[in-house]
Amino acid sequence: MIEQPLERKLYMTQKPLIGLTSTIMSINTIETQNENVDTIVVYNKFAETVRDAGGIPIVIPMGKPEEAEYYAKLCDGLIFTGGEDISSITYNEEPHPKVKKVNKHRDDFEIELVKKARENEKAILAMCRGYHLLNVSYGGTIIQDVESEYSDSINHFQSSATRTEPSHTVNIEEGSKLHKIVGEKEVAVNSFHHQAIGKVGKGLRVAARASDGIIEALELEDQDKTFLLGTQWHPEELRHENENMMAIITTFINEAKKMKE
Question: Are 165 and 223 in contact (CB under 8 A)?
């Protein structure tokens, strides 16, 4: 019998293949003899969550924009993960003094990945940095430092709580896709960001806000199009404590599976 290539084997399985975006970090290990070596990095919690929800995770290394179409076609769904700030150059602004580490190379690659995923009608779920990147890819902008620009903002970076604990609530828009998924008007979420959504990208709409007005979730205006949802928080960290958070993941996985079928 002729051995099928790995790509074909993965495609033939009933589980959807979910691509996870990644970044590059310089890591020092015993194996590298205490030398810092550039390493592809993505939080393992994303992969665990995809498996728990019935998908097969693969890591997408940061590459050239022209490589994005291959990954968009290979995967049934894509998760845009957390990480660095979005470069202000990406949305035509000058950098705020409190902007932290940026990665323009990653921005460019992932914006093209969003574009190709949309063209190929693949399901998209974006969280934290990925959520900001998603908005920018639709022509939106970023609030570069919430504390500086919103004097009355709540604390959006929970330094005194673990990643699996919620730190504030968000109000979900009735009639939104997100509201249909979680079935609640208000949910408690975790929070690890100093940037936020500014102008909402064309074709997107607000699905949730924090009490201070900061936009906490975005989705497509056209509900009939392929699944796309972005959240400021990390539902993968809260999935064991709150079934509504797992519902976000499983809905995304099920939508990816529909596209596969």
Answer: no
The enclosing H or E element of 251 equals helix 243-260
CA distance 206 to 178: 10
pLDDT digits (tens, 9 = 90+) for 210-225: 999 999 999 999 877 8
Task: Report the C-alpha dihedral over residues 161, 164, 169, 171, rounded to 10 degrees.
Answer: 150
How far apart are alpha carbons 14 and 20 in whole angstroms?
Answer: 19
> Which helix H or strand E contains 50, and what residues bound it?
helix 44-52
Mean pLDDT check: name the lowest of 2-11, 47-56, 115-124, 159-168: 2-11
The string of pLDDT tens digits covering residues 108-122 is 999 999 999 999 999
Under 8 Å between Cβ of 165 and 156: no
Q: Cβ of 221: how many Cβ atoms within 10 Å?
A: 11
